[in-house]
TrEMBL record:
NCBIfam families according to UniProt: yfcH
Protein name per Swiss-Prot or TrEMBL: TIGR01777 family protein
Domain NAD-dependent epimerase/dehydratase: 3-220
Residue stretches making up the DUF1731 domain: 253-299
Protein family (similarity comment): Belongs to the NAD(P)-dependent epimerase/dehydratase family. SDR39U1 subfamily.
Top-level taxon of origin: Bacteria
One Pfam family this sequence matches: Epimerase
Length: 303
């Protein structure tokens, strides 16, 4: 099987690439640096501009699976209007480039996996959110709606399309986990804002496992929440981190301080989604990590 990953040099893309290479599959990664990119051993780098099918589009004829993970990091800095435009362009234009190549291909891939995020639902408060829940009305929600729509045309070409609304990915070296760990390691950990906001998390092992499960099951298509069955509130998550790291949990960071420090980007930590993976559970996917403490201990406690 031949697999093409757009955005394959990132955290999730690299994990998926290694997984499929270990299974003996051929993995091609679309990268602005092409063959010069730092990629998992055995993966083939293919240069692209993330804007069009120019120079690489013919490769689509050979692919069995296409995985689209492109998108500039939302947590890389304050959300200026210029940065927000890059968030949009990096997601929507790359999706359109994949569709352009697919449209030109004589032989279409069997399945397209399209990345999205639980931010699709906006700030959900206490509401339990499954795949049938409507989109929110803020910037992130609108971005996710357009991100998902960027590759919708594949369905009309007869390509099975899977959309992943991903939660916070817990993995060794993950930027988001490192940011959550830092205050506790400095002995100043505590709740962010009210601490009541929900955190829809997922262990990287289940990201990889669920994607493989969905790709391999020809009867599954459409939207799937890629998060663990048991989301937790920020305060609960923080107390668990403190206990595992043997650090105090005492210094709250008020919402107004986070808003002053981060601006609109503070939504990433002050708002949340009580998202559940209803369709994955119904499909029978066997989660390796359903409970957040077990997931954190797997990543943080070295035997």
């Amino acid at each position: 099987m031949k697999i093409l990953i757009a955005g394959g040099s990132g955290l999730i893309g690299s994990a998926l690439a290694r997984h499929y290479l270990e299974k003996g599959q051929e993995v091609y990664i679309l990268s602005r640096r092409g063959s010069a990119a730092v990629l998992p051993a055995g993966a083939k780098g293919v240069e692209w501009d993330a804007q069009s099918a120019k120079g690489w589009g013919d490769l689509m004829n050979e692919m069995d699976v296409v995985i689209n993970l492109t998108g500039e990091n939302l947590g890389a800095g304050r959300w200026t209007e210029q940065r927000k435009q890059r968030f949009y362009t990096s997601r929507i234009q790359s999706g359109k480039a994949l569709i352009e190549a697919m449209r030109q291909a004589v032989r279409k891939p069997g399945v397209l996996v399209q990345s999205s995020a639980v931010g699709y639902y906006g700030d959900g408060g206490e509401q339990v959110l499954d795949e049938s829940s409507p989109p929110g009305k803020d910037f992130l929600a609108g971005l996710c709606v357009d991100w998902e729509d960027s590759t919708r045309e594949a369905e009309f070409m007869g390509v099975r399309r899977i959309v992943l609304r991903t939660g916070v990915v817990l993995a060794e070296g993950a930027e988001v986990l490192n940011r959550l760990l830092l205050p506790f390691r400095l002995f100043v950990g505590g709740p962010l804002g009210s601490g009541k906001q929900w955190l829809p998390w997922i262990h990287m092992a289940d990201v990889v496992g669920a994607v493989d499960f969905l790709v391999e099951n020809p009867n599954l298509a459409g939207v799937f929440n890629l998060s663990a069955p048991q989301p937790v509130q920020n305060a609960t998550f923080g107390k668990t981190l403190a206990r595992i790291l043997r650090r105090p949990y005492w210094l709250p960071v008020p919402a107004f301080a986070l808003k002053l420090l981060l601006g609109e980007m503070s939504k990433l930590v002050l708002e949340g989604q009580r998202a559940i993976p209803k369709r994955l559970i119904e499909a029978g996917y066997p989660f390796r990590f359903s409970e957040h403490e077990a997931a954190l201990r797997d990543l943080l406690v070295k035997v």
